[in-house]
Design a protein that fits this description.
- The protein is mainly β.
- 0% of the residues lie in helices and 73% in strands.
- Strands 1, 2, 3, 4, 5, 6, 7, 10, 11, 12, 13 and 14 form a 12-stranded antiparallel β-sheet that branches. Strands 8-9 form a two-stranded antiparallel sheet.
- Strand 11 and strand 12 form a beta hairpin.
- The radius of gyration is 22 Å and the shape is elongated.
Length: 246
Amino acid sequence: QYNEEVNVDLKSDQSILFATFGITDRVDVSLAVPFSTVYEGVAISGSFVPTGGSPIPFFAHSSHTASGVGDINLQLKAKVIQKGLAALAIGTTVRAPSGDEYEALGAGTIGVKPFLAGSLSYKRISPHVDFGYQLNGKSILSGNLLTNVKRQLPDQVQYALGADAGVSRRLTVDFDVLGTEVIHGDRLLANVGFIRKSYNITNGAAGFKVNLVSNLLFVGNLLFPLNDGAGLRFKIAPLIGLAYAF
């Protein structure tokens, strides 16, 4: 008879270089280059009880750390409607498979996400909404690592709703609800195994921006889950950054 417990530890730290260039007053292009460090650890503990004998305890632990460039994203966005304080933009983000999928640094396939983004300014409050559909190719991460068979990485419906509020001339606070509907994603169920089923991931994001000097901004943000329907999730993911406008 076996009695065992499996503990999995997964940590990811990411730094992103992000730049936006205005081609015209209505069209801009953005580039995001992520650099990630991923730590994975697994510990198994338990005991084996032979027939008529005493329990024999056992323990095993393994860990691995990987660092490198993740998947690079290129985005093109154009403002198509501007009426008073309201605006609507359309765009497309292309994800290049530059990260090593075997080291959990990338998705292992190209991705294309067309999207709509709308915003409104009213006094010191600026609500905004985004809606996009992430199209993915085939990846080993959705297939079989042992046989190198690739399968379709699930597509995703991604959306965001939130608002920025100007507290003072130098301080802005913001809050967003970020949602992802994974279409026919792989799920691991106890006593069943892997199945394909759609599921939702909803997160909240709260943060602030401070104008330090001139065109230099300090950005702080906390990302936290609002549902638990997607299995393994982070508790709180902090973000800090600097932004400068030329």
